[in-house]
Amino acid sequence: MARNKRVQDREEKQEEIIHAARALFLNEGYDATSINRIAIEVQVAPNTIYWYFKNKDELLVSILNAELTKHLNAYMLQPTQDPTERLIWVVDQLQLANRLVSTVHARLKFSTELREWHEQFHLLVEGLLRLELQKLGMANDQIETKVKIAVFTIEGLLAHQLSEQEKRAICAALVSTS
Amino acid sequence: MARNKRVQDREEKQEEIIHAARALFLNEGYDATSINRIAIEVQVAPNTIYWYFKNKDELLVSILNAELTKHLNAYMLQPTQDPTERLIWVVDQLQLANRLVSTVHARLKFSTELREWHEQFHLLVEGLLRLELQKLGMANDQIETKVKIAVFTIEGLLAHQLSEQEKRAICAALVSTS
DNA sequence: ACCTGAACACCGTTCAAGT
DNA sequence: ACCTGAACACCGTTCAAGT
Questions:
Q1: What gap in Å lies between CA B63 and CA B170, rounded to an integer?
Q2: Packed helices A56-76 and A98-107: angle between N→C axes, nearest 10 degrees
Q3: Domain with CATH 1.10.10.60 in chain A
Q4: Which fold has domain A9-53?
Q5: Where in chain A is the domain with CATH 1.10.357?
Q6: What pLDDT, on a 0 to 100 scale, did the predictor assign at position B160?
Q7: Dihedral angle of Cα B103, B106, B108, B109, to the nearest 10 degrees
Q8: Best residue in B126, B149, B154, B176 to probe A by mutation, most A CBs within 10 Å?
Q9: In sequence order, which residues have a C-beta less than 8 Å from that of residue A94 and are 6 or more positions away?
Q10: pLDDT category, B140, cuts 50, 70, 90?
């Protein structure tokens, strides 16, 4: 059917743009990557990007959703049961996407779509953390505060490069039930 | 002396620009405040700003230094000895300058001067926190990790608006010695 | 439906010229 | 020393026009 063919093409092209933009955002940064630069990579005119995405921030959100799906899958399939190691694993994964993470925070004030995505992401991470802390048998009245401290600390770990040793000590402290 | 007179004038004009820019950065935000807008406020041509400050980020650093001096003074004069209350006080002060704080983080990647200022600021805050935790008699091998968690959590508190209740619970947990 | 050339409005910053 | 008019290079985005 012509209808389906077209939809297929559109999605392929969208993914092509997402893929190119993702690489550029990670390597050069969001601000340093002009729409023009992405367009060159995909071999179209700059304004063609706007046929597939409402604007630069929505393109970013599309990239983030693709990344999230990918990593969430890996998280679920993780073998380790040790909570400290699981937390370190998450931090390491986020570290690799560090540039995207800080871009999200930097652009919160410019895009409501991004703000919504960010809020969803926070709720998701908090939910996963809550589960881990419950599994450890932490008292319920402590959990909410600990979860928030943990989430903020993870963000801090990403924003400020610490040594491997400091990172591990912090992660261990975050999941300690004392 | 003509020499001194001139220096005086220059500093006055600089402070005038700092004062105007501070208000605009706080009310409208750094990005939303064009150099042109500041120039209008001070009644000069846009490029005149560059006679007094190397660029927009250096103007920001000047504003930050003025703020820091002011608040550091108030911190030292604070009457309360309760560590939780002292911490909440700091968070509240930073909350009021919230827009400046997030601007600093957003612009770290664009300005080395700002990066240096930010690092100094972190060292200062960590130092003050370390002192507070030592006063509480916390074990030395725990302090470094706790200090880092506290600093990151404070940043998180500023970035994400929480309720008064949550804020207090978190601050209390940060200075708990258990 | 998809793509483009040309333009728009705006930005921080620079430079040569004035006093 | 201090200030300015005019320009530069660049940005994300829009619009009318093409196929």
A1: 30
A2: 130
A3: 9-53
A4: Arc Repressor Mutant, subunit A (1.10.10)
A5: 56-175
A6: 86
A7: -150
A8: B149
A9: A101, A154, A158
A10: very high
Is the domain spanning B56-175 CATH 1.10.357? The answer is yes
Q: Which amino acid is at B19?
A: H
Contact A175, A83 (CB under 8 A): yes
Best mutation target among A94, A133, A149 (most B Cβ atoms within 10 Å) is A149
Would you say residue B3 has pLDDT above 60? no
Please write the tens of the pLDDT for every residue from A17-62: 999 999 999 999 999 999 999 999 999 999 999 999 999 999 999 9
CA distance A143 to A147: 6
Q: A44 by DSSP, 3-state: which?
A: coil
**Separation of alpha carbons A151 and A108, rounded Å:** 17
Q: Give the 3-state secondary structure of residue A97.
A: coil
Give the residue on A whose Cα is nearest the Cα of B118. A160
For chain A, the first-to-last Cα distance in angstroms comes to 63
Q: Say yes or no for a CB contact (<8 Å) between B152 and A173.
A: no
Q: Angle, to 10 degrees, between the axis of helix B83-96 and the axis of helix B112-135? A: 160
A57 with A110: CB under 8 angstroms?
Answer: yes
pTM score above 0.70: yes
Q: Which nucleotide is nearest to A45 (CA to C1')?
A: C4
Percent of chain B with pLDDT over 70: 96
Distance (Å, whole) CA A48 – CA A14: 11
Local confidence band at A2 (pLDDT 50, 70, 90 cut-offs): very low
The residues, any chain, with a CB within 8 Å of residue A128's CB and separated by 6 or more, are A75
Q: Scan for tokens 């506290």, then name that residue.
A: B150
